[in-house]
Here is the input.
Amino acid sequence: MEIPVIKNENYKIIIDDLGSRGEGIGKIEGFTVFVEGGIPGDILNILIVKVKKNYAYGKLMEIITPSKNRITPTCKYYKRCGGCQIQHIDYKEQLNIKRKIVLDNLERIGGIKGVSVSETIGMDYPYYYRNKAQFPVKKGKNGIDIGFYSLRSHDIVDIECCEIQHKNNEKVLKIVKDFINKYNISVYDEVCHKGLIRHVLTKTGFTTNDFMVCIIINGKSLPKSEFLVKELKKIDGLKSVILNINTEKTNVILGERCKTIYGNPYITDYIGDIKFEISALSFFQVNPVQTYKLYSKVVEFAEFTGNENVLDIYCGLGSISLFIAKYVKSVFGVEIVEQAIEDAKRNAKLNNIQNAKFKAGKAEEVIPEIYEEGFTADIVILDPPRKGCEKNVIQTVVNMKPKKIVYVSCDPSTLARDLKDFLQCGYRLENVQPVDMFPSTVHVETIVLLTT
Ligand SMILES: C[S@@+](CC[C@H](N)C(=O)[O-])C[C@H]1O[C@@H](n2cnc3c(N)ncnc32)[C@H](O)[C@@H]1O
Here is the structure.
């Protein structure tokens, strides 16, 4: 096919789809063009900035006719910050788009035709919903920058506020920046691997108002930390200040060791009536309002009778296991992070739950091991990280012959890949339910029910 666009020339384009990073997609004489900032329904004037064999990139120069779903984002950093991608789309339409993303992935990657995907479960108020924030710290042109990475780069957009994070973060950002400046504390330079403060991590208990601040450092201690703690203590609900030691030359944010320099090593929060102690290192769903809806769907899909032995693979700090414990005979959770398993065991005790057991280890090793030892499950819950399940985890789960599998996924493409395997092994796809855990971003959580 002859390429119908020329670099540095302007074109009119109708955007009719959205890419995986939230970019608009349209066609010029059948040739695909990606346009950052475009949304389906827009008619745009664009400048072609890059041309490849099968597609091109266009820069949005002018909105000729806006899509009926286009809104003006309220965040003043939105254009520069890479944290949110679709804040310029009306929330109802965001939910439609997420449903379509799930459907497209199931069809394209999973090869699953004619699947029915339910309407995305959204939020009544899709702002200030995150209970966890991770801010990189860097020396910028005009001083210390603390904020979020800008789109596709390691430059930091220095921010004072964020519309999807808890309001307490605004105070933390100011306090940490003032502390660094006042006491001349060095900040990390990822190129030469020198400097102390790398990231600031915060966690909030939405129902308890507990608040944790964790400073990630390239070193063993933080000079003058008592002055930082003194300021942080002014924040309502502060329960914990942690130093996390990360001296590795890596993009991974957290190191393995933590030191508590004020309060407890964890904060507490509730999902439904289950109380959780959450430490700096353990995974906890970031949107507690939607987590309750998600876990309630797990219960709804599984239709527990009280007689089931359940296997919860990739269990984190046992949040699904403990949430469902009262509906089942027993639940066994497996998770790679040892501290999360310690949290899970402590949380089981905290809630006086006796039918939940946990084991730390890689699912791809533990699941075949316990199967060899004779373990089987009536219902399996899978909630893997973005990369999805290892092949041998899928195979061993199939060998266990559970009558139901509930798969919770934060990446529709790996979900689709893994579902294909389960369907080939004879499972049927009963329900596909997207849940919006991450408003204003392109990410979507999906919960799926497979039956025999
Ligand atoms: C999406 S989280 C789900 C956690 C939990 N189910 C929840 O709802 O909070 C995925 C979890 O899988 C864990 N994980 C990652 N790779 C793993 C592996 N190979 N084996 C076991 N767990 C793993 C992560 O540490 C994380 O806690």
Summary: The two ends are 46 Å apart (CA to CA). The pocket of S-adenosylmethionine is lined by residues 283-285, 314-316, 319-320, 334-337, 340, 362-364, 383-385, 410 (CB under 6 Å).
